[in-house]
Amino acid sequence: MSFGESPPVSGGRTDITVRVDSADGMTTVSVAGDLDMTTTPKLQRIVTKALDEGPQTLVLDLDEVSFLGSDGIAVLLRCHQYAGARISFRVVTANPVSLRPMQLTGITDVVPIFATREEALGAG
Hints:
Residues 16-124 form the STAS domain. By secondary structure, this protein is α/β, with parallel strands linked by helices. Helices cover 35% and strands 32% of the residues.
């Protein structure tokens, strides 16, 4: 099942594109663009909706994120908390633009981070 691509949200430094794909109890949310205070509310709504559908695993792919601000970090934490123990919440990024802020804020100690989508989907 695929939700397709969402229309871009205007107002930030760049637009954000979000794609949601679901299959076999796994949902992948792929994000491209800046995650700042103007774009993160939409991402929060999309990820929350995807989590509400009850996948076994939700993978948030941030490899194409061009900016990760404090609002984006907050969304990651809220989504991880919302998933709780019922859903395995994983983040994908090898992109220093998104990985470095997560390392500096300690998110990498709380949220499972994978270098590739394949690793995240294959993790136990």
